[in-house]
C-alpha cells in the first residue's frame, strides 16, 4: 500500500470556547459498568415544528467553510443591515464587528441604525484562541431565513479583536446560543435566545443539521463551502433518519452532557468514566474539533494509531501539526477506525452511542490541496477545558437542543458522509450502573470539614504556646523570689521603643 504524501504546513483555526478557570483537583469515582444492548425499546420520537412558522424556509439556511464555522444571515437595526453570523452553542453573547477590520468585507454601523440604544457598558470576551472587546447596546434583530419575528436583543459592537475573525470565513459576528450563566460581562446580560422566547411565541427548542463535506452544492461558491440547517423553534423530521435519542443537559451554562464510555473500533478505552468528563463535556458548534482531556486524548490517539497501523503517520499528524494527502479519490477510509461515544440517556441507568466515522474526524483542507490530491487534518485534539463535541462530530448527526425539557437529542443526519463499508449511527439502549456518577463535580469543602481543620490548627497553636507560657511564668516567679540588689536599676518603661 502506498504511503500517504505528507504535507507540512502552518494552519490556524479558531476554537470559539470561552476560557474557564482550571480545576486543580480530581476526585475519581468508580466507573459504571456497561453491558450489551438491552432489548430494543424505542425512545420517544419527537416530530414537531414551531407552530405557525414556515420550517421549510429554514432548511439550508446555514453556510460556511470547512474548519471555519457555520453562519446564518441576520438583519440588524433599522433600516436592516444584513450580516453573516456564526452559530455558536458554546457561548452566550450576540456580537458583531462594528469597526473596520482587514478580514471583514462589511460590518455593523451603529450610527446608521435609528433603533440602536447604547447601554453605556463595555464587554471583553476571551476564547480558547482569540478575544474581542466592544460596547454593549440593544437593537432590533430578525433572521430572514428563520421565524417570521422581530425582537430587540442585546448586541455587543466589537471594536477591537485579536485572532477572532478569520480571513475568508465570510462571517462578521457570533450568535451565542448557550445560557445566561456564561454571558459576558455577567449573567444579567440576557442572551439572544432568551430574548426571543420572552418577546415571541417561538418554542424553547432549536435544532442543527451541519452537513460538512456531505453538503450538496447548488450555488456558485468556493469548493470548500459547506452548508446545513438551523431550525429555530422546532424539529424537522426530514433532516434525520431513525430515532432521536436524548441525553440530559446536566447543567444550564454550556450545553453540558455526560459521556459514560468511549470506544475505538469497538474496543473500550477502559478509563474511569469521570476522566471523559474531566472539567466538563459540552456540545459546541463553535469549535471545530473533537477535543478531549489530556489522558483521554492520549489513550484515544494510541488506539486510533494502532487501528490504522497499515500506513505510517508521523507524530505531527496526530498532534494536528501536519496534513496527510492522497491521490484524489483514493483516501483509504477503511483503515481508520470508528470512534463511539456513549452518552447517558434520560434513563440514568442506560446510555446510547453515537458512532463517528473517519470522514468526520479527518477534516478536508482544500485550500492547500491540488486538483490531484485530497488532504486532511486530524480533527481530534487535546483540551485543558474538558471534552468538546465540536462541529466535526455534529456533522454526522441531527442535533436537537430541547431547552424546554433540558435535553439534547441525536439522530443520524440525512446529509452525513459515509462509504460502502460504514455509516454514522445512533444506537441503544445500553445498560449501566450509576451513570450519573460519571459527571465531573468540582471538589468542595463543606462546613464540617472547615471546622475540623480549624480545631486542628488551634490544637497545634496551643502545643507551641504552652511551653512559652510556662517559661514566662517561671521567669516572673523567679524575679519575685530574688529582689534586685541595691543599686540595680530596672525601668520597664525604658524598654518601650
Give an overview in words:
It is a single chain. The chain is of the alpha+beta class and 497 residues long. It has a domain at 69-201: Cathepsin D, subunit A, domain 1. It contains seven helices and 26 strands. It has helices at residues 192-199, 273-276, 294-307, 315-318, 358-361, 391-394, 447-481, and strands spanning 5-8, 62-65, 70-76, 81-88, 94-97, 117-126, 131-142, 150-162, 173-176, 206-210, 225-232, 240-248, 259-264, 267-268, 281-283, 290-293, 322-327, 339-344, 350-356, 362-364, 373-378, 380-383, 387-389, 397-402, 407-413, 425-431. The strands form four sheets. The protein has a six-stranded mixed beta barrel with strand order 3-4-9-5-8-7. β3 (70-76) and β4 (81-88) form a beta hairpin.
Give structural attributes.
single chain; 5-stranded antiparallel sheet; 497 residues; alpha+beta; 6-stranded mixed β-barrel
Amino acid at each position: 500500500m502506498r504511503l500517504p504524501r505528507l504535507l507540512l504546513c502552518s494552519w490556524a483555526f479558531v476554537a470559539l470556547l470561552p476560557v474557564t478557570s482550571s480545576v486543580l483537583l480530581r476526585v475519581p469515582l468508580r466507573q459504571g459498568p456497561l453491558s450489551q444492548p438491552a432489548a430494543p425499546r424505542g425512545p420517544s420520537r419527537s416530530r414537531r415544528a414551531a407552530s405557525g412558522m414556515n420550517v421549510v424556509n429554514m432548511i439550508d439556511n446555514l453556510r460556511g467553510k470547512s474548519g471555519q464555522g457555520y453562519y446564518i444571515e441576520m438583519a440588524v437595526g433599522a433600516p436592516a443591515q444584513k450580516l453573516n453570523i456564526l452559530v455558536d452553542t458554546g457561548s452566550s453573547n450576540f456580537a458583531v464587528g462594528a469597526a473596520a477590520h482587514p478580514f471583514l468585507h462589511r460590518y455593523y454601523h451603529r450610527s446608521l441604525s435609528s433603533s440602536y440604544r447604547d447601554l453605556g457598558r463595555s464587554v471583553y470576551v476571551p476564547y480558547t484562541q482569540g478575544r474581542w472587546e466592544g460596547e454593549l447596546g440593544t437593537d432590533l434583530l430578525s433572521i430572514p431565513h428563520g421565524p417570521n419575528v422581530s425582537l430587540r436583543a442585546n448586541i455587543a459592537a466589537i471594536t477591537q479583536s485579536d485572532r477572532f475573525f478569520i480571513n475568508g470565513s465570510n462571517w462578521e459576528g457570533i450568535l451565542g446560543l448557550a445560557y445566561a450563566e456564561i454571558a459576558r460581562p455577567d449573567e444579567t446580560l440576557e442572551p439572544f435566545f432568551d430574548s426571543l422566547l420572552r418577546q415571541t411565541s417561538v418554542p424553547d427548542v432549536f435544532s442543527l443539521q451541519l452537513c460538512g463535506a456531505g453538503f450538496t452544492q447548488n450555488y456558485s461558491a468556493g469548493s470548500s463551502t459547506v452548508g446545513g440547517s438551523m431550525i429555530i423553534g422546532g424539529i424537522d423530521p426530514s433532516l434525520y433518519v431513525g430515532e432521536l435519542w436524548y441525553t440530559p443537559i446536566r447543567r444550564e451554562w454550556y450545553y453540558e452532557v455526560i459521556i459514560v464510555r468511549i470506544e475505538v473500533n469497538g474496543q473500550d478505552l477502559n478509563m474511569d468514566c469521570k476522566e471523559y468528563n474531566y472539567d466538563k463535556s459540552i456540545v459546541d458548534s463553535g469549535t471545530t474539533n473533537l477535543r478531549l482531556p489530556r489522558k483521554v486524548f492520549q489513550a484515544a490517539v494510541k488506539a486510533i494509531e494502532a487501528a490504522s497501523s497499515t500506513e505510517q503517520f508521523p507524530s505531527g499528524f496526530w498532534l494536528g501539526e501536519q496534513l496527510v494527502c492522497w491521490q484524489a479519490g483514493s483516501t483509504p477510509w477503511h483503515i481508520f477506525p470508528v470512534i463511539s461515544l456513549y452518552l447517558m440517556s434520560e434513563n440514568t441507568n442506560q446510555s446510547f452511542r453515537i458512532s463517528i466515522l473517519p470522514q468526520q474526524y479527518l477534516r478536508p483542507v482544500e485550500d492547500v490541496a491540488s486538483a490531484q490530491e485530497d488532504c486532511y487534518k486530524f480533527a481530534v485534539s487535546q483540551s485543558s477545558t474538558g471534552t468538546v463535541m465540536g462541529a466535526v462530530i455534529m456533522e454526522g448527526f441531527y442535533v436537537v437542543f430541547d431547552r424546554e425539557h433540558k435535553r439534547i437529542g441525536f439522530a443520524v443526519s440525512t446529509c452525513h458522509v459515509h462509504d460502502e463499508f460504514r455509516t454514522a449511527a445512533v444506537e441503544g439502549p445500553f445498560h449501566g450502573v450509576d451513570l450519573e456518577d460519571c459527571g465531573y463535580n468540582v471538589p468542595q469543602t463543606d462546613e464540617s470539614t472547615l471546622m475540623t481543620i480549624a480545631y486542628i490548627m488551634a490544637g497545634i497553636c496551643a502545643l507551641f504556646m504552652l511551653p512559652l507560657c510556662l517559661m514566662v511564668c517561671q521567669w516572673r516567679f523567679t524575679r519575685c523570689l530574688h529582689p534586685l540588689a541595691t543599686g540595680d536599676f530596672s525601668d520597664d518603661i525604658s524598654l518601650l521603643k
